[in-house]
């Protein structure tokens, strides 16, 4: 009979490797700031300044990208929570009701500039160069 070797640590049993990060995130409801300490396809480890949020389910938003995850906690330890992702959503697209608060706050994170405002901005350098002449046969002379 063949012997089966079991991994020595829980980290070895993970389906996907966790990647260490320091991404800024928010947990909803409540818009609680956190750091996403490590991230994987199926879950993440969240680190909080104060007490970690309680609840059976919450929404975790990666603030830089607008990717939102519906998550449930798998473990809690001090100011850290390990979560398992149930579903994900890009906040640039229409979101369900449970992600509406997160989507509204994420969309307001920085002002949107229209083309006229960008062109009028003093940061835009205007060229003084004239357009190059038209290439092709010369226009007919009368």
Structural summary, described in words:
With 142 residues, the chain is mainly beta. The chain has a domain at 14-109: Beta Barrel (Thrombin, subunit H). The chain has helices at residues 100-107, 115-120, and strands spanning 19-28, 32-39, 43-47, 58-62, 67-77, 80-90. Strands 1-2-3-6-5-4 form a six-stranded antiparallel beta barrel. A hairpin with a 4-residue loop joins strand 4 and strand 5. The radius of gyration is 25 Å and the shape is elongated.
Order of helices and strands: EEEEEEHH
Structural class: mainly beta
Strand arrangement, major sheet: 1-2-3-6-5-4
Continuous helix count: 2
Corresponding CATH superfamily of the domain at 14-109: predicted glycosyltransferase like domains
Helix content: under 10%
Key structural traits:
single chain; 142 residues; mainly beta; Thrombin, subunit H; 6-stranded antiparallel β-barrel; 2 helices; 10% helix; elongated
């Amino acid at each position: 009979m063949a012997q089966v070797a079991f991994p020595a640590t829980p980290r070895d049993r993970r389906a996907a490797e966790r990647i260490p990060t320091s991404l800024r995130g928010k947990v909803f409801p409540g818009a609680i700031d956190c750091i996403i300490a490590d991230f994987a396809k199926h879950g993440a480890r969240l680190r909080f300044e104060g007490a970690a949020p309680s609840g059976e389910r919450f929404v975790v938003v990666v603030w830089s990208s607008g990717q939102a995850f519906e998550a449930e906690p798998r473990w809690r330890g001090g100011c850290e929570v390990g979560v398992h992702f149930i579903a994900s959503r890009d906040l640039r697209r229409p979101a369900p009701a449970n992600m509406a608060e997160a989507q509204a706050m994420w969309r307001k994170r920085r002002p949107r500039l229209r083309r006229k405002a960008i062109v009028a901005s003093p940061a835009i350098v205007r060229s003084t160069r004239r357009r190059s002449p038209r290439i092709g046969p010369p226009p007919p002379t009368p």
